[in-house]
Amino acid sequence: MRHKGVNKEETRQKMREAVGRGFRGHGYAGIGVDGLAKTAGVTSGAFYAQFGSKSEAFDVALADGLNEVIEAIPQYQADYGRDWLMAFVDYYLGSAHVKNLDCGCAMAALTTEVVRAGPIVQAAFEEKMERIADLVANGLSGNSEEDRRARAWAVLGILIGGVNVTRAMGTTKIADEIAKSIKTAAVSVAGVTRDARAGE
Predict the structure, then answer these.
(1) Is residue 108 part of a domain?
(2) What's the distance, CA 115 to chain centroid?
(3) pTM as predicted
(4) What is the tens place of the pLDDT at every residue in 2-20?
């Protein structure tokens, strides 16, 4: 019998989003099934019914998180045109994103977890990261696809590493200094000229 007001698809989506926040905020080892279920507002039994195991829940959270980036980059490119990368970089190293681990980018929050995962997870991560790199490369100017792709990987590496170093700082002044330097490095390696007013 169907309960009125209960949408199973909405419930599943809310659980996926909550599990993603849990892993991003605490790391794989930092939160257990009970904690993930609590974050999702469900019982541990409901968690297992949806995901099967903690590792399967992580796989879903990783895929969903990287899909967010895959969807976001074309949107930035459509919204900002030639200035899309500067807008993306300003968001990525902006205070709101740096301080928000739970809802931050999965590239930064979960990459270190993938390093410790097995080959199946790493293969899935690699496939999605290649799509992300291609999307970034498609938004860069340059004479060759190889050159644009190389610069795209450099941009991603700078941003992912940079936001994690910035997050690790206990002093706001130092964090802001690092964020500013990372922004400059990212747009520079991409071959983009930043307007002096941008990011202020």
Answers:
(1) yes
(2) 15
(3) 0.88
(4) 445 557 788 888 899 999 9
